[in-house]
């Protein structure tokens, strides 16, 4: 078994479920030590059991709070002394509303987690990073094309791409890379279509050339690649992980 990330510390937000959980398990299998946070500590505890004796630090963190993020990063540095790779995975999936039916609370919830959270974690980590470090940030296929009744969600995911490309330019001269994954219809517990079930799931499956949903593990494999040496000349790239998505109006994952 390859231990490409032995002696590396990988920080993952939203590590308690879905893509974050799958990536934590993947990186543990590759030898990494893990700094994991999620707003739901019970879920983190289950992930901790799944990855066994791998060196790790767990914390319940609301990434929308710069104070909570700073406290988390300080604790990670105290435990490990360094951070090598950051996976900004935590996010809120959309609920479909016509714009005139959305609320300020809904705007704040999505914007504060999906983009402010990425900003908070990135800003707090940068002073601790050395050449060879990298970020992978989660956008979405909805960060590349619009979806009716998902204007706020799409805005946050477009913003992740713009922010990440700026970081690629800003941090690249320091040898720190920033790349983006844009998942499509992924079978996660918080995917709006999965929650609806039935016909919504069928529409998602039929909306891809491969005729199925993606798994969190398939996204985790790409994240591991983007952290690794094989992707060393990738910086500011957006990698679509969508099974060959068709131009439909199906709710994205």
UniProtKB/TrEMBL annotation:
Keyword RNA-binding attributed: no
Top-rank taxon: Eukaryota
Chain ranges of the Ketoreductase domain: 8-189
PROSITE patterns registered for this protein in UniProt: ADH_SHORT
CDD domains xrefs: SDR_c (cd05233)
Gene3D superfamilies for the chain: NAD(P)-binding Rossmann-like Domain
Pfam families cross-referenced by the UniProt entry: adh_short_C2
GO biological process entries: fatty acid biosynthetic process
UniProt KW keywords: NADP, Oxidoreductase
Molecular function terms, GO-annotated: oxidoreductase activity, acting on the CH-OH group of donors, NAD or NADP as acceptor; quinone binding
PANTHER family, per the entry: (3R)-3-HYDROXYACYL-COA DEHYDROGENASE (PTHR42760:SF83), SHORT-CHAIN DEHYDROGENASES/REDUCTASES FAMILY MEMBER (PTHR42760)
Similarity comment: Belongs to the short-chain dehydrogenases/reductases (SDR) family.
Protein name: Ketoreductase domain-containing protein
Organism of derivation: Clohesyomyces aquaticus
């Amino acid at each position: 078994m390859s231990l490409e990330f032995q002696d590396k510390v990988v920080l993952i937000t939203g590590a308690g479920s879905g893509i974050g959980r799958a990536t934590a398990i993947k990186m543990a299998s590759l030898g990494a030590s893990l700094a994991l946070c999620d707003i739901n500590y019970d879920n983190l505890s289950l992930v901790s059991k799944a990855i066994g004796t791998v060196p790790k630090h767990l914390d319940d963190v609301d990434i929308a709070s710069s104070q909570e993020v700073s406290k988390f990063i300080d604790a990670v540095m105290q435990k490990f002394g360094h951070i090598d790779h950051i996976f900004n995975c935590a996010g809120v999936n959309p609920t479909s509303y016509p714009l005139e039916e959305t609320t300020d609370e809904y705007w704040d919830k999505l914007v504060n987690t999906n983009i402010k959270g990425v900003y908070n974690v990135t800003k707090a980590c940068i002073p601790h990073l050395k050449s060879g470090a990298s970020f992978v940030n989660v956008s979405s296929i909805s960060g590349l094309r619009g979806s009716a009744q998902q204007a706020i969600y799409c805005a946050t995911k477009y913003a992740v791409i713009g922010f990440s490309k700026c970081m690629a330019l800003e941090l690249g001269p320091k040898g720190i890379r920033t790349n983006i994954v844009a998942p499509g219809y992924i079978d996660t517990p918080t995917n709006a279509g999965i929650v609806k079930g039935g016909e919504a799931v069928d529409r998602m499956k039929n909306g891809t050339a491969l005729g199925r949903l993606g798994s969190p593990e398939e996204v985790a494999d790409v994240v591991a690649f983007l952290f690794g040496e094989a992707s060393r000349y990738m910086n500011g790239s957006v990698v679509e992980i969508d099974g060959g998505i068709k131009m439909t109006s199906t709710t994205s994952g």
